[in-house]
Design brief:
This protein is an alpha/beta fold. The longest helix is centred in the middle third of the chain and has 18 residues. About 5% of the residues have low confidence. The structure holds adenosine-5'-triphosphate and magnesium ion (MG).
Amino acid sequence: MTALLNVQNLSVRFPIKRRWGQTSWLYAVDDVSFEVQRGETLAIVGESGSGKTTAALGVARLVANSGGTVGLGGSDFLALEGEALRKARAKVQVIFQDPYSSLNPRLRAEAIVREPMDSLGTLPVAERPARVAELFKQVGLRPEQMKLFPHQFSGGQRQRIGIARALATNPELIICDEAVSALDVAVQAQILNLLRRLQRELGLTYLFISHDLGVVQHMSDHIAVMYMGKIVEHADRLSLFNDPRHPYTKALLSAVPSVDQKRKVERMLIPGDPPDPLNPPAGCRFASRCPLVEDACRAAQPPLDAVAADHKVACIKA
Ligand SMILES: Nc1ncnc2c1ncn2[C@@H]1O[C@H](COP(=O)(O)OP(=O)(O)OP(=O)(O)O)[C@@H](O)[C@H]1O
Ligand SMILES: [Mg+2]
């Protein structure tokens, strides 16, 4: 099987102005590598600030990378230009968390869904209205709702508009960044079901970003756990939930009540705050909060090594 998405050594850093005119670099994503097979879902989980959104933006080329490659169906997405880039952009779409702020309030729903086709020119103009109508049907919205404005929809319906818009250019990869986090639980389930059905019907590949392991449990084939810009554990879903190896992953899992009760993961709270991202520790970034820490952990960054088939962990104690 060839990976649709092959991310190698991706880094994204932000310049942060300090006093006396100095600039420090914040490595929001630091040398991250992963693959996603066609038709599968890789979930990226981690606490707030761990770099999930920045990784997504880096993959989608919506923020400048400071290193690495993003292979998309065999070509290097980050190296493309001109017409080739325009074509590739149509293949990668992002659904954001907040359907309230990510939809232009002054546009009717039909114009919002149509916009990617207009800007990327993926379909002859005459065919666009029919395609918009088809997309509305596909995401479970009614034809008469095409004329409404975003404020006339519920949160779940707005996210359906966001999904229809993402589908407009026939993408292969859809990046969902906290796509259901702003919705209440019942509506979350509906949208997750819709995303799964669309994946089956259209053969979509998902990069599914969420801080909520309960959601990820229903929505992933593989899971990458991020901590301070690094992937600390990467495994297939069952291995990650049944046999978590990194102390940070164990702590995250124990904070999910349903997961905790079912799997009887030893309950463990994550003490302390993450270190200053502008001044990360030399060794393992989780060392300052890790219950298993020993001197060697502070000496060097542990590499992300295989501990089993389909299971990699960056921890010398794993
Ligand atoms: N444009 C920016 N300029 C400077 N720093 C940024 C910028 N965007 C993100 N950061 C920093 O990069 C780090 C990663 O942020 P990011 O938004 O990717 O995390 P996240 O995992 O998506 O968090 P959340 O769960 O809150 O969405 C954080 O320390 C954040 O403050
Ligand atoms: Mg985010």
